Amino acid sequence: MEEFINYILKFGNLNKQQTDFLMSKAKTLELHKDEYFSEAGKIPRQVGFLLEGVIRFCYYNNKGEEITHSFSEENHFVSDQQKFEAQVVASEYIQAVTNCRLLVFSKKDWDEIGNTIICWEAIKGLIEKNCLLKTIERRSPLVSEDATTRYLSFIEQFPGLVNRIPLSHIASYLGITQQSLSRIRKNIR
């Protein structure tokens, strides 16, 4: 779980005793492809750190269409953070796109970490800010660019994902049909 500690240490300093305490609260969770980490209509029960695999965040629009709005890959946090912190019902799904292995923290343990490690709230705030900025950075071009440019940006931002996830999820993320994505892929080869 060295990846997790190294990730945390990018955002603040923790001593060995603090990192040991942090790891004592972590449990490992295996998710099979298509299983949910969190579901709309339910209260999120845990925060995860993705050790292996790919996760997607999605929702259903008012037409009942499934919309993928982001992906997470190894060495990133996975959570519906606002809903988790407030312990209110989630409005989106967090689903394993591949088989996944995560370190997870229950709400009780997450709160205990915050109450025990003095600088934890500051570290957590920096992590959340970083995650939000990356999401905005990745989503912003999707609004103004044409479909081919969006796909090329996707490949640039997620170089390891194109061959790991279904084209239907990529098309949904890009806001195009799967047929359009197939044409774009054919034209740029």
Automatic annotation (TrEMBL):
<dbReference type="InterPro" id="IPR000595">
    <property type="entry name" value="cNMP-bd_dom"/>
</dbReference>
<dbReference type="InterPro" id="IPR014710">
    <property type="entry name" value="RmlC-like_jellyroll"/>
</dbReference>
<protein>
    <submittedName>
        <fullName>Cyclic nucleotide-binding protein</fullName>
    </submittedName>
</protein>
<dbReference type="Pfam" id="PF00027">
    <property type="entry name" value="cNMP_binding"/>
</dbReference>
<feature type="domain" description="Cyclic nucleotide-binding">
    <location>
        <begin position="30"/>
        <end position="113"/>
    </location>
</feature>
<dbReference type="InterPro" id="IPR018490">
    <property type="entry name" value="cNMP-bd_dom_sf"/>
</dbReference>
